[in-house]
Design a protein that fits this description.
4 copies of one chain form a homotetramer.
Chain A (H helix, E strand, L loop, with lengths): L1 E2 L3 H6 L14 E5 L6 H13 L4 E6 L4 H7 L4 E4 L3 H10 L2 E4 L7 H13 L5 E5 L1 H9 L7 E5 L2 H8 L8 H11 L2 E4 L5 E4 L2 E4 L12 H15 L4 H20 L7 H17 L11
Parallel strand pairs in A: 1-10, 2-3, 2-5, 3-4, 5-6, 6-7, 7-8
Antiparallel strand pairs in A: 8-9, 9-10
Helix pairs in contact in A: 2-9, 2-11, 4-5, 6-7, 9-10, 9-11, 10-11
GO molecular function (chains A, B, C, D): ADP-dependent NAD(P)H-hydrate dehydratase activity; ATP binding; NAD(P)HX epimerase activity
Cofactor (chains A, B, C, D): Mg(2+)
Protein name (chains A, B, C, D): ADP-dependent (S)-NAD(P)H-hydrate dehydratase
Chain lengths: 286, 286, 286, 286
């Protein structure tokens, strides 16, 4: 298991090509936000936009449209009950993030099945929160695409069958091999498993133990994967590292870090990385 | 009657354990926010989240969902008319805050009765605003749990039967003994009564005489009690002290202090406390 | 006609009495905000809250509740179509501000008539925007109370019958005497007429020529009159001076000044005034 | 083809005349924002308000009213399905911006046709986004008024019939001549064609490749044209230059620039321009 370090940031976050347009930086669809958990999809979408994804659309319960547009006019929105619109949108994007605040009721399951039926091998699909629980409970066939699972330990237990106490690196790696895709097990010092290796995140703190932190990470991974899509594994690793690196900076002056603060810090953070030389320590946010 | 001082902050607000997750920092349910007073429950929930509670859910009139999610995507929400969902949620949390903007109509009373019927001895229940008025008017049996009442003087008159002019420390202590739980009588130099002692808050100013200040305090007490739940009395005292200490700092440059400003200042304030040595004066917000 | 100067600020804005509570600083009801002009009542209410009014309630079209609560959780709200609730509320407040975004349709007129039928001599009633147009068009009997009219020049023409070219100080003073109350004619160098004198505002600039500026002024006058109610004329003069003094400070660095920026600057501005000595120049916002 | 430089800013953005009122700075109507793309019209309207337009009204799907008022209480709003209100409003304004988030469904087309049927020769009409697509698809007769088209390259292909590879300056100029009005082809180094000349924008960067950037530009053009309406071509050129000049300043510290940040920077930016001497380099935002 490798320790991730800040080199992953410089490998992924490069100065943008001047000859480009919105499509160059990817299209992301985020699916979630039922009647009870609207904030989750808003936080995820905010992360995707501030990470620099070119075009971001949210599919959620229409109850959440106003709160979304108020915080994030940059995002477009559809009703996730509208199967026709949802099916059409999935076909148009590079990356799908599904799960933040999706819920586990019948309507949530229907949404998940619609999305899973439509994704293609060339797409990245980030599977988070309720989507993991639904997958585990209903033993659904997996989506096509490059899958990235982002369970916390309890969700990983549901998905892998491994009790938390049994989630050793060896067992996790074996479970990932069986499942396919990439797996981030979120915990103090998050672990990441893929067919090409495994990584441990040495940074982060208890100031991040706040509702919405995982939704923000899922959105950041979506934004990074859409934008830096030549190597999706690297992109996801960089997003994970950046998420905690920003939180650690904020936690120098805060007892808790609010998820939206991480998103709002992304443009300045990423600029620092893109400008930093290969041999020199990045002084984030200074 | 003891004078509270800033030592209470250091006794309660400690550096967070690294091996932790959201549940470590408690689950809070805030109940209130009818069709007329939606802002009250939003301010209370904002205080609970910024204080560092791990997971925060609001039960309110669905009219308020969008305004809540817009300001506070970190909070989850349910319709407080949905007795089944409300009953289920009460069972899942460490701390309940009931009353901010709840109103005193029939529906408010039904909500209060549902919540009171479900709380258990191990839970903390903060009873504020309209919930106090309803209790007094309908002479309801009290909730199980560690009760914390946060009346202003007129509400305390309703609840204790003591006219404002008769609310002396001795009379208040006797009324608290009869009522049980902990009582904060909010006024210039708030007084706090519990079975283990009584305290007087020597700080605070008229810059805090703004609608919503009490809702913010109730939410902070909820957030502190959920997070620092080994000693709920100490946690409530610390929240009360912190509320006015932050307001006093803001009032150095403001004629009035807006309630949400206190909440937004909490993460930086609490960090200063957690880092400060035991013998040294805390220079808040510098 | 006297030139207003910053002495009016120090005469009105004093350090707050420590022994006080929310009621000490007055209760304001703002009435307006139909389906088309919701922003106007939000801006007015924001001004009243940030000016330091103790308790602020808005009566508006329910369409605007969420936008109001999102920006201003400190305010309470009722549906202005609910005559019973509106009638009850008018009786409970010190100051009514009516007109910002009220509109001129039948429902607006009904609201205006309900409010006018209920106000009492001891109350201050600020009459702005559409309320002035309705008054003029329907030749309604005036409300009881200390009336403050805040027309711009075209509205003043409608109300007084004086064409803009004929609005000389002498003619304006005569029209005020006939109308009663206090009249602010909003223009470059606003003029104020009362039975006790007339004043000219020597400050302000074209950076304030933005929609919503007048709504903010009406709300500030309401907030000042409720809070500094021993001399309502002085309070209104101070609010008018403060509004342009803050705008002038902001306009040093801005081509236009947004109305909400003036409200948000109020707490710091008023603190500077309350702290400044009688003989010394107030360095606002430094 | 001329290179635009910052002289265009000083030619257009002058200190405001003191004897003025809201009408002096123009009335803008922005039309767009259907059920899916509400954020677009909010971003456009924000740009128009912060650019200093005197009065701004939005005609959109009523679904978007709350999100609009929350972010921008300065704007008024009508339901764009209400043909009577829309028709009346078009007659009252100096400038119409149509297209941001309008959509291309039947209702969108009806809105476009209503607006186009009402505009007069003296009005400026900025035609953006979906409005361009609708025009091209339905080969509608053009609106009366001074037309400004703001297509990106694909929309320009639809409107002009020129494939992107064939969009040379000569071909573009010829297409503009046939179409009439002014055409901004948005791309890396945007090109602008009018009957009086053609210009190339030498500034801007890939940090602007974010959804909503074009909506913001359309709103800025509307705000500038309403306010500086003695020379609409110059006003549009200045808006275009200012949009990228602000973005370039923000991009010094940000990997991506969010559209609303450009709008919020406008008042300070425009003040710098209005104060700068003719021979001296403008140090924006310093």
């Amino acid at each position: 298991m490798q320790e991730l370090d800040e080199k992953i940031l410089r490998q992924v976050i490069k100065p943008r090509p001047q000859e480009s347009f919105k499509g160059t930086f990817g299209k992301v669809l985020l699916v979630g936000g039922n009647h009870q958990y609207g904030g989750a999809i808003i936080m995820a979408a905010t992360a995707a936009v501030y990470a620099g994804a070119g075009l971001v659309t949210v599919a959620c319960d229409p109850l959440n449209v106003t709160a979304l547009h108020t915080q994030l006019p940059e995002a477009m929105v559809i009703d996730f009950h509208d199967q026709t619109a949802l099916t059409k949108l999935v076909a148009q994007v590079d990356t799908v993030v599904i799960g933040p605040g999706l819920g586990t009721e019948a309507a949530s399951l229907a949404v998940l099945q619609t999305v899973f039926a439509q994704t293609k091998a060339a797409q990245t699909v980030v599977i988070d929160g309720s989507a993991i629980t639904l997958l585990a409970e209903h033993r659904l066939p997996l989506s096509a695409g490059q899958l990235i699972f982002t369970p916390h330990q309890m969700e990983w237990q549901r998905l892998s069958g491994l009790a938390i106490a049994d989630q050793t690196p060896t067992a996790n790696q074996a479970a990932q091999a069986k499942l396919g895709g990439m797996v981030l097990v979120k915990k103090h010092h998050t672990e990441i498993y893929a067919s090409t290796g495994s990584w441990r995140l040495p940074i982060g703190s208890a100031a991040q133990a706040v509702g919405g932190m995982g939704d923000t990470l899922a959105g950041m991974i979506g934004g990074f994967c859409a934008q830096f899509r030549t190597d999706v594994t690297q992109a996801a690793l960089a997003a994970t590292y950046a998420h905690s690196a920003i939180a650690d900076q904020l936690a120098e002056n805060q007892y808790v870090v609010l998820p939206h603060q991480i998103s709002h810090a992304l443009p300045a953070f990423m600029k620092k990385v893109a400008q930093s030389g290969p041999d020199h320590q990045i002084g984030f946010m200074n």
